[in-house]
Amino acid sequence: MAEEKKLILVLSDHPLSPSGVGTQTRYFIEAMLATDKYRFICLGGAMKHENYQPVKVDPHGDDWIIYPIDGYGSAEVVRSVLINQKPDVLWFMTDPRFYGWLWEMENEVRAAVPMVYYHVWDNYPYPHFNKKWYDSNDLIATISKVTSDIVRTVSPEVEETYIPHMTDTDVFCKNPMKNQSVQTFRESSFNMSAEQSKETTLFFWNNRNARRKMSGTVVWWFKEFLDKVGHDSAKMIMHTDPRDPHGQDLVHLMEHLGLTSGQVMLSAQKLPPEQLAMLYSASDCTINIADAEGFGLATFESLACETPVIVTMTGGLQEQVTDGKNWFGVGIEPSSKSIIGSQEVPYIYEDRINKDDFINALIKVHEMSPDARAKIGEMGRDHILTNYSSEQFAERWDKVLTHVINKFGSWDTRKEYQSWGFQEVTQ
Predict the structure, then answer these.
(1) Which label site among 10, 159, 230, 274 has the fewest CB atoms less than 10 Å from its CB?
(2) What one-character DSSP code corresponds to residue 322?
């Protein structure tokens, strides 16, 4: 008789959304479903919903049900699922600040099921203000070596394991659309002749238009790069919302800088993975100079498509661009580390690179021969396949879930956790 599948309750971005957190959540769920050992109730948040009816994801039926929610959920919703569904593990992902209500009900949850947190943190200094949240978990999985070091230092008593992200290397590859060559796509999409395509260096920027992603700065500095090498010799595609309320008005900025002749092109529509992979493949280099980046999915996908990268040496970006021996693009060391913060995050480094270093990185890639860029791109894909494969990702998560279920148990078998209780004292 087959063993009953373990039920995992997931709190995260909606796993069918295009966000980095949503994408990694989907990869996690799909990988674990493939083992035929688990089933999932997923509270899919962080997006607008047309309705709030539960959805059974084909072809998994009852093994994967998504309940659309606002934000990242609430105590009432989690209580309802715990009481009615009795999951074996609570798995959740992203910034700890998004789960204030969950940390407050830790005693309720952990009395019944273990809490497994897939943690994203961008940067140093060590966030000791997060310790109270880290200590609320049975196990924390970390996405980068920086995040791993942070959790081990801040909360050494909590079990931690390093599980970096993955990407679908069957989709994110050099030629994801079999009905059209990369070269044809490049010429038709960007209105270039074969000769123009050969002579033009195409840069790609794929991030949210937000302050820490340096969206406006990238446009400004790219213009200064063009002033040096010629406005007809390079182009940049920016796949983003040009007027995101969390970022700059990129259209206005481009007009102000005189970048109105196709030097910077905007791609604002949401694209299926195959088309996004085609943009990576058609580009000569992908840029990510965010001042803090937990992992950096865009550059990760770019390397899988054999396209070199230019990155800030911060967070997870620095373990993508090099394996310690080979380089898969250009890594720029921050020239300054300023402390910023808020009421929720008292302090964090803002890693800023120097303008000249960035322009020099652009020039370095621009002056590379196509063969040199292709060689770097091939090594980059090998780096992804060797260190971040889907097989490794699935094996690591299956091992972790099996370990957690066996070590900690749930409900009647719950171990390794002593819940608080009240006792009447008479005098």
Answers:
(1) 230
(2) B
Instruction: Note the pLDDT of residue 422.
Output: 46
- Answer whether residue 108 is part of any domain: yes
Q: How many residues does the chain have?
A: 427
Q: What is the pLDDT of residues 367-388, one digit of tens each?
A: 999 999 999 999 999 999 999 9
Give 407's contacts (C-beta < 8 A, 6+ positions apart): 415, 416
Q: Looking up tokens 């020239």, which residue turns up?
A: 335
* CA distances, 199 to each of 236, 278, 302, 307, 367 (Å): 14, 19, 21, 17, 11
Residue with tokens 């998504």: 66
* Tokens coding 98: 């998004």
Same structural domain, 97 and 207: no
Q: Is 283 left (phi over 0), alpha (psi -120 to 50) or beta?
A: beta
Whether the pLDDT of residue 420 is over 70: the answer is: no
> Where residue 364 sits, what CATH number does that domain have?
3.40.50.2000
Contact predicate 235/259, CB 8 Å: no
> Which residue did the predictor score with more confidence, 2 or 325?
325
Residue 250's domain spans which residues?
A: 182-387
Q: Does residue 421 sit within a domain?
A: no
**Number of Cβ atoms within 10 Å of the Cβ of 262:** 12
Taking alpha carbons only, the member of 27, 276, 279 closest to residue 167 is 27
Separation CA 22–CA 26 (nearest Å): 6
Residues 200-254: pLDDT tens digits?
999 999 998 888 899 999 999 999 999 999 999 999 999 999 998 888 899 999 9
Residue 156 shares a structural domain with residue 189 = no
Q: What distance in Å separates the CA atoms of residue 88 and residue 112, rounded to the nearest whole number? A: 8
48 and 61 co-located in one domain: yes
